[in-house]
Design goal:
373 residues; alpha+beta; disordered C terminus
Length: 373
């Protein structure tokens, strides 16, 4: 990958900037304004972006890798349209006396059409968005080499396009690296995951790119940011792209089995997932939360009942809990106090009597261990 920094999003990548100012530029830098002694605070400073966090932590991104150069680009996945079309072609032969033609298979074409938006929260992000659109526009052009002082095309511009788990490099799922190869159907279902690694994108060629700058429609989030004389940055760029996939494995049926059973979405074969199993997934999340709460209870108990006079404090707390529970309307302070005392009490029970642990039952513990594999 040419630039590891492009895998992370930061809408203040170049410097902290103000949206506003005098309307004739990006405004002053935050540190400049603060050092100038101005008493009024900046109009609007983006210290962190929720969309940055979504793309960085959840990896909700679109990636394009240019194979000849190794350059890659990542876009936040503000997808407005996505279609995956498979079009087989046949040689048709009309035979006298037959109602239908004889069809002989020739090839299959898989085409991806994707449209997405690239919004900007800051001047920094608007500039970076324009730079990314520029690099994407360069990817369809071929690679050249000099032969006897003449530029000759040496390589077609192949690309890898990855759209989360919906478009990725197809191939057998590696048992050692993919949790989806677990033994139970529930493990396979829970283990279905993807990553933002652009080298795992589907191989193909970009058939067309349309870049819409939306400079004429400020009411719909478009318009421009004025950077300086004769220089503007689009607030909202839209990209429409058509991509033809090149199959890297021979696809088809042999002896009743499909040759690449993970094509095209890298799922693995599972039996029908029952309603009970789906409920277990929700239960699993609930079990995790309960186990976290149980651990918090134990931490509170250890902090409150360690050291001298612990027995006296426990007895006093039981009286306080009983007194608070008898009251009809507790104020916020009393409710917080009751919640804390209950937590410490439950944690102490878990420490003293594991067999009646208020966290997980033995059946729930078995379910949790089976789900975790």
């Amino acid at each position: 990958m040419a630039d590891d920094d492009n895998t992370n999003f930061n809408n203040e990548k170049f410097y902290p900037v103000l949206i506003g100012g005098d309307g004739k530029g990006p405004g002053t830098r935050v540190e400049e304004q603060l050092s100038s002694g101005e008493e009024s605070p900046p109009k609007q400073v983006f210290q962190f972006s929720a969309t940055d966090n979504l793309a960085n932590q959840s990896e909700a991104v679109i990636s394009v890798l240019h194979v000849p150069s190794g350059e890659s680009i990542f876009f936040k996945a503000f997808i407005t349209a996505f279609s995956d079309s498979i079009s087989p072609s046949y040689n048709e032969e009309t035979v006298f006396g037959r109602t239908d033609s004889i069809y002989t298979y020739q090839s299959s074409r898989r085409n991806i059409t994707i449209n997405w938006k690239i919004p900007a929260e800051t001047y920094s992000e608007a500039y970076e968005n324009l730079a990314k659109a520029q690099k994407l526009a360069q990817f369809p052009y071929p690679s050249y080499t000099d032969i006897n002082n003449a530029a000759t095309i040496s390589q077609t511009s192949l690309c890898r396009l990855k759209i989360m788990n919906l478009l990725a490099k197809s191939g057998p799922v590696a048992k050692a690296s993919n949790a989806a190869q677990g033994t139970s159907d529930l493990q396979k279902f829970n283990g279905y995951r993807s990553s933002k690694d652009p080298s795992q994108g589907a191989l193909g060629v970009i058939k067309s790119i349309t870049i819409l700058h939306n400079i004429e429609n400020p009411d719909a989030g478009g318009g421009v940011l004025y950077l300086g004389k004769n220089t503007v940055l689009p607030k909202l760029i839209e990209i429409n792209m058509s991509f033809d996939v090149i199959h890297e494995q021979t696809l088809g049926w042999q002896n009743g089995n499909f040759k690449n059973n993970s094509f095209p979405f890298k799922t693995v074969d599972v039996e029908e997932i029952t309603e009970e199993q789906l409920n277990n997934i929700q239960t699993f999340n609930e079990l995790i939360e309960r186990e976290r709460q149980n651990q918090a209870n134990i931490d509170n108990a250890q902090a409150r009942y360690s050291g001298a006079f612990s027995e006296a404090r426990k007895n006093k707390d039981m009286q306080r809990i009983a007194a608070l529970e008898r009251k009809d309307n507790l104020n916020d302070r009393q409710q917080k106090r009751l919640d804390y005392l209950r937590s410490a009490r439950d944690g102490q029970i878990a420490l003293e009597s594991p067999d009646i642990n208020p966290g997980l039952s033995s059946e729930e513990t078995v379910l949790l261990m089976e789900t975790l594999g």
